Amino acid sequence: MKKCSLKRVVSLLLTLAFGLCFSLSVPVQAAKRCVLSTITKSSGTRTLSTEAGNHDPIVLVHGLFGWGNTEIAHSNYWGGTDSLRDLLTEKGYTVYTPTIGPVSSNWDRACELYAYLVGGTVDYGLAHSRKYGHARYGSTFTGVLPQLNDTDSHLKIHLVGHSMGGETIRMLAQLLENGDADERAAGEANTISPLFSGKCRHWIDSVTTIATPHDGSQFDNKKYKIEPLTHQFIAALAAVQGANIDDTNLGLDFKLGQWGIEREPGESYHSYFEKVMKSKLWAKTKDLSAYDLDTDGAAVLNAYAKAQKDIYYFSIACTDTYRSLTFPHYQVPYANMNPILLHSSLYMGRYVNYAYGHVTIDHTWWENDGIVSVRSAIHPHSGSSDSFNENYGTALDGSYQFKPNTQKGTWNYIEKIQKTDHINVVGQQKNKQFLQTKFYQLAGMLESIPE
């Protein structure tokens, strides 16, 4: 497998960083468990009742470059100027929005998500930490749902991941249900995290991925430079938020403490960002986001993180391109696409790769949302043995329903959201009411899953 060049890393990370400044994470707080009812297809209006339903908490997991509520201005990853967590909570749902490593590997992020949910100190695993050369232990969490690990508990959760968050929740499901053989072989039984034991209670009800690059992203721009893009990012953020934000008061944390890379007290964001991006770490390890998001790296992840037979898997794709009329009919972005995604979208809309030893990329990858191809978002292909429910069908009428032919352990493709780019589906700067309704409908569908 090829190593991830610094320029490639900066290209991918900064493209998402520019856009995701419109949509950042919200505070992590526990909400009361409520008794729920159904949701109307047209408006998303929901009335609380005592009707039976699936009341499991919903956990929204951010993707690459996700932020916490105190890190950038007063905006949310999930919902932009509004908080989807708060909106869903107001309708009676129990929703959590964890903040995990924004550029870490899916393995490390899954370990952090596990600790966030059940509590305790993050354990990245003895074998894993030795293999990649970083600390075994990370931050300590109190746990928002510690009862998940109780053997006599019946509580389950719905995991919803945007972008790389979809890969992360797949990894968590794999580890929870199967553990890891290398970790079990590396240490004594009493020192192994329950996450790697293969003996955890199965507490994931469903996995839903939104615009997730299951097969990686073919975008690979080698022209970006660190220095000007750092300043562009800060300027773009300040302009969008209308706030006095500069590289001295931005609180973004890359959460790379396991690698010994941390922001020092009083250190400017500019200095911190350069320290992270100029680290030799990017060139020497596959244990970071850039490798997992690469088409070859995603194939390795797909071979490891399989669909589990007792979990419902759903996928949602986004598209903001159209087929050009002239041969060879490249995919071209619509005018409404976020300007910072235009370059990547145009590149993806015509890119092919038939090189031996790499994932084959042809015209079926061209339709995209600016970062992720529709093909990649539907379900894992490359390196994967997962099955796909071809008869499930897409929600062409715009409604989300739990259908009789929904299958566990296989991918059920819900729909392709039209004229919606990778950023706007969560940032929601445009078509806010339409996209909020999509999330109301998704929550309603998850609620209707049989217990």
Automatic annotation (TrEMBL):
One of its GO terms (cellular component) is extracellular region. It comes from the Bacteria. It is an enzyme of class 3 (hydrolase). The keyword NAD does not apply. One of its GO terms (molecular function) is triacylglycerol lipase activity. Pfam families: Lip_C (PF24708). GO terms for biological process: lipid catabolic process. Its EC number is 3.1.1.3. It is found in: Secreted. Residues 1-30 form the signal peptide. It catalyses: a triacylglycerol + H2O = a diacylglycerol + a fatty acid + H(+). Keywords: Hydrolase, Lipid degradation, Lipid metabolism, Secreted, Signal. Gene3D superfamilies: alpha/beta hydrolase. Residues 54-431 form the Lipase-like C-terminal domain. This is triacylglycerol lipase.
